[in-house]
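Pipeline run #58 for the internal structure catalog. This entry was flagged by the ingest filter as a single-chain record with no existing model, so it goes straight to prediction. Upstream metadata was stripped on purpose; only the residue string is passed forward. Reviewer on rotation: M.T. Logging verbosity set to normal.
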Amino acid sequence: MARWATWSWILGAVAGEVVLMQACATAPLPLPEPGPPPAPVEVVEAPEPAAPPPVYVRVTGSSLNVREGAGTSFKVVGTTKKGERLLVLGEDGKWLRVQLTPEQEGWVHGMYVKPEKTCPPDKNTAEILNQPDVVLRPAGARVVLEATVSALGFVTAVTLVENTTGDDALRREAESELRALRFSPPVRNCKPQPFVYSYTRSF
């Protein structure tokens, strides 16, 4: 009887240990208390770049033909009179693209117009008035261009200085970005001055 009692006690102890281990294994762990919600973040829209100021010219000839393109071979689409004020939209060599009406544009020769009389203070530097939409890429190869900028702030000619990309399509992309720029030229004795601008574009 003593041996049986001892064996029963051992079985009971083992059984109790197994039950205890099962209880420990199946008991759910306490869930962490939720933390405070994240603070709201204020979203601020980036300001739009300032639009370049308009450029106006006055007609100096008694009557000036406005043509469909930059050249005398293009047909006449309108005429202007001396003293008439025209908004300049672009430039191609000695020709200016102007706005006749809100619905009509044309080209006039720069010999027969002059910028409106204003006398800005002298300055030795030029500023870019707008920024092109540029697709940024990791710096590597590059295209270097030089632009001739007129006294009206338009790019009139572009010269390739260097193209380490070996890809002419990238050269054309850089030139297109450069030609889209508008400048405020240097000023000397009340007169805006033409200048040369160097443009480096990394690809």
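catalog note: The helical segments are 2-26, 168-179.
catalog note: The two ends are 95 Å apart (CA to CA).
status: ready for reviewer M.T.
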